[in-house]
Amino acid sequence: MLKRLIQIALLPLLATLSGCNLVVMSPSGDIARQQADLIIVSTVLMLLIIVPVVFLTLYFAWHYRHANTTAKYDPEWHHSTRLEVVIWAAPLAIIVALGAITWISTHRLDPYRPLDRLDAERPVPAETRPLTVQVVALDWKWLFFYPEYGIATVNEMAAPVDRPITFEITSSSVMNSFYIPALAGQIYAMPGMQTKLHAVINKEGEFEGLSANYSGAGFSHMRFKFHGYTAEGFDGWIAKVKQQGTALNRDAYLKLEKPSEREPIRYFAAADKDLYSAILNMCAEPGKMCMNEMMHIDMMGGAGTESHENRAKLQYDNRRIGDAEGTNAATFPATGTPAKSDEQPHNEQGHGNHSMPDTNNGDADPAPAQINN
User: Fold this and answer.
1) Higher-confidence residue: 316 or 27?
2) Which H helix or E strand runs over 349?
3) Secondary structure class of 339 (helix, strand, coil)
4) Of 248, 281, 314, which closes a domain?
5) Are residues 139 and 207 in the same domain?
6) 96, 104, 121, 155: which has the fewest C-beta neighbours closer than 10 Å?
7) pLDDT-derived band of residue 324, with 50, 70 and 90 as boundaries?
């Protein structure tokens, strides 16, 4: 009778759990599998303390109840060496074990660490080349670049089974979080910064990706599809994107970047090869100086806000001229005025550094800067 009552009491709990998606504990990628094992091991270690404490609490309350006259009553008791050893030794041992597991797992599952295995039984073959996927978190959608294939997609990505994936992740506006539960743990996407994640999918299938960090009104619908394909299936997906997609240039990106919700899947058969770098350096808009160029100017000594603005304008103008003439180089001195065509660098290496005569106690004038787009 007691057993039947317990079964009846558990029915609501089982009904609730039946609707849960336990993908975190049953993933399809090796990194996520290792993370699931870490959760299990940590939980079991903590339960080694929690379960006995809960049991003994209930047992003491029942055994030393007022009605139990057979229980030993010792009001003068105040110390037990054996009890003290158990109380302190068991938690200490578990803390040491958790610390060791945490230290090892933190290094082994470092998202910046390239993979050395496909799963527990297979190392990564020496000739395997990782698939690079560049991820941009937009408001409120995901943009994926495949530089190896020259394509881009919105709210859908794919990867071959058992091929390592290197994610390069950034954001266009606010901080976000890139998360595919079946593949690996979440990692943040931040504007003007790049984070990395290495992972591998071991099973074919369609999996869900999402944003794990609140980023505004459209956050709850900021989801995408991740497909695990065989090598042939992945090639077919690439061919479909190239066949059905349009071109993604700067103008198309600036329209896509505008906030929107429930964005449908989009394919881009050709993507500007420098667009991801421009997004990362926050200079996708025409005429805007890139952060890496600004940092280079500052590193070389800088010349104030006016110089930065002049250099940004000159860089944009020279890029347009260079595109028309088939070249990408734009050279100008630190004063913010274009370099004259008849000016030649003083050193013969051609690195744009001007060797000045050793005057004024050996101090040399600052060299003009040369910036290549």
Assistant:
1) 27
2) none
3) coil
4) 281
5) yes
6) 121
7) low
Task: Please tell me whether residues 259 and 138 are part of one structural domain.
Answer: yes
Whether residue 138 is found in the same domain as residue 27? no
Q: Give the count of alpha carbons within 13 A of 52, CB side only.
A: 9
Report helix, strand or coil for 264.
coil
3-state secondary structure of 193: coil
Q: Let me know whether 223 and 255 are in one domain.
A: yes
pLDDT digit string, tens, across residues 246-273 = 999 999 999 999 999 999 999 999 999 9
Total length of the chain: 373
Give tens-digit pLDDT for 138-189. Answer: 999 999 999 999 999 999 999 999 999 999 999 999 999 999 999 999 999 9
Domain residues for the domain of 35 are 22-67+82-109
Task: Specify the pTM.
Answer: 0.73
Q: What is the mean pLDDT of residues 88-113?
A: 93
Please measure the distance between the N-terminal and C-terminal CA atoms of the chain and give it in whole angstroms.
80
Q: How confident is the model at residue 328 (pLDDT cuts 50, 70, 90)?
A: very low
CA–CA dist 212, 144 (Å, integer): 17
Residues 102 and 130 in one domain: no
Q: How far apart are CA 112 and CA 110, in angstroms?
A: 5
Please give the DSSP secondary-structure letter assigned to residue 219.
G
Which amino acid, 123? Answer: P
Q: Which of 281, 306, 326 is the last residue of a domain?
A: 281
Say which amino acid occupies 181: P
Helix axes 304-325, 291-299, angle to 10 degrees: 120
Beta bridge partners, 142, equal 137
Q: What share of the chain is helix, strand, coil (3-state, %, to 5)?
A: 35, 25, 40
Q: Clarify whether residues 148 and 177 are in a common domain.
A: yes
Count the Cβ atoms, other than its own, within 10 Å of residue 355: 12
For residues 96 and 216, membership in a common domain is answered with no
Q: Where are the beta strands (DSSP E) in 190-273?
A: 195-199, 205-211, 223-229, 246-248, 266-271
